[in-house]
Write a structure and sequence with these properties.
Strand 6 and strand 7 form a beta hairpin. The chain contains 12 helices and 14 strands.
């Protein structure tokens, strides 16, 4: 079917604006806007019919003359983004169902193979107008801020891209969880048991790091993504644990990491310390979460009865290099699937005594349950130090002293 014939058929549905007319052939030519393309098609039709060319002046049955209001929409976007620091932006659009139905009906009826959707032109044209007003750049992949237009309501919603940075934290105080826990009784609503805080624990590593960050970025929240997690009663010292902090909906985006590090360490002094290394992105979070890093622990072990250092050393030799069968520990069975996991003890050694207890260092594969490696967890971990010694043994304190980050080890 010739283009003029297709244009005639399109116009039998009702008169449409140059934008919508040109968009039906949007992918057939380059270097023209849909508006210019539609005007050219209307002129070509007039010439073919030997009729005078008349500019479109009615109401478009497809878009309702949306594109006449592009300058007003651009002003709305700029107003909605006011107060946010950003260098790049993107415009999106919630297409009214009737508009989508109208144009898709024509595409289907006339078998048009190269149209451009209403949404694409809206995003592009409003984006160009916003860029002209602000001097900011459109970024299709990682915009700092996204403006979502809703033609049905006349509203603009703003979505702020998170800022992420990478570092390592040390936790010096036992009894602090890695992340915020809602109160088990009220699920965060606030009740007598949690003193109406909504929290199971008053503080977490996430909150101790996040509070000064939220203030510095004027953000809504901060979420910690860790390379694994230590138990609440464990410290994390030595090289610290790799983490990425995600800053949610920041109004400010320009920040000096060294100054931020100093402020976090000042406000969390004696409890948590951080070393921040670089800005990060969403892909790094996936890498961090999926990495199976080895971890080294220093533990204080109490053994029932009299056991010599030589006896203990021989028992540890039996564990070194062994693959351990661990059924989900009883202490976490209420929140984790009950299954048997295989994890290897890469190294274990006796390094001294403290207060009548043995100090051991254990290097294990990610996911190795250290407390159960010692106690046996009533036979759920095989082999264990308690099984080898044929006497009760348990961990009285545990410190994480080394956690490999992504690409830092095999």
């Amino acid at each position: 079917m010739e283009i003029n014939e297709q244009v005639e058929k399109i116009l039998t549905y009702g008169d449409c604006c140059d934008h919508c007319l040109g968009r039906f052939f949007g992918k057939r030519s380059h270097g023209l806007s849909d508006d210019e393309r539609g005007r050219g098609l209307r002129i070509a039709r007039a010439l073919a019919l030997n009729q005078p060319y008349e500019r479109f002046s009615g109401t478009c049955w497809i878009c309702g003359n949306f594109f006449d209001a592009v300058p007003e929409w651009a002003q709305k976007v700029v107003a909605a983004m006011e107060g946010f620091e950003y260098s790049t932006f993107l415009v999106g659009c919630r297409v009214p169902p009737l508009v989508a139905e109208n144009e898709e009906m024509v595409w289907s009826d006339l078998s048009l193979g190269e149209p451009e959707p209403f949404k694409s032109e809206v995003n592009r044209e409003v984006g160009k107008a916003v860029s002209a007003l602000t001097g900011k750049t459109v970024d299709f992949k990682r915009p700092d801020i996204t403006a979502l237009l809703d033609p049905a309501t006349g509203m603009v919603d703003i979505q702020i891209s998170s800022i992420l940075f990478y570092g390592r934290y040390q936790k010096f105080e036992r009894g602090i969880p890695q992340t915020h826990w809602n109160c088990r009784a009220c699920k965060g609503a606030g009740c007598e048991k949690c003193n109406y805080t909504g929290k199971q624990y008053l503080d977490s590593v996430e909150e101790l790091i996040g509070r000064p960050v939220i203030e510095a970025f004027d953000a809504e929240d901060a979420v910690l993504h860790g390379a694994g997690r230590e138990d609440i009663d464990a410290r994390c010292v030595g090289t610290g644990r790799p983490f990425i902090l995600e800053v949610i909906a920041p109004r400010k985006r320009t920040m000096d990491l060294a100054a931020l590090e100093s402020e976090i360490n000042r406000t969390a002094e004696g409890r948590v310390s951080v070393a921040l290394s670089h800005w990060s992105d969403r892909a790094d979070v996936e890498t961090l979460k999926s990495s199976k890093a080895h971890k080294k622990y220093r533990i204080l072990v109490e053994v029932e009865g009299q056991v010599s250092a030589g006896e203990l050393a021989n028992a540890l030799k039996t564990l070194k290099g062994v693959t351990i069968q661990q059924r989900t520990p009883m202490r976490v069975a209420h929140r984790r699937a009950d299954k048997v996991r295989e994890r290897k003890v890469l190294d274990v050694e006796y390094v001294g005594e403290q207060d009548g207890k043995f100090v051991l260092e254990v290097l294990g594969e990610a996911g190795l349950y250290i407390k159960e490696l010692i106690s046996g967890d009533q036979g759920r971990t095989i082999p264990s130090l308690a099984e080898i010694l044929q006497r009760s043994a348990h961990v009285t304190s545990l410190d994480v002293v080394q956690v490999e980050g992504p690409k830092e080890g095999d």
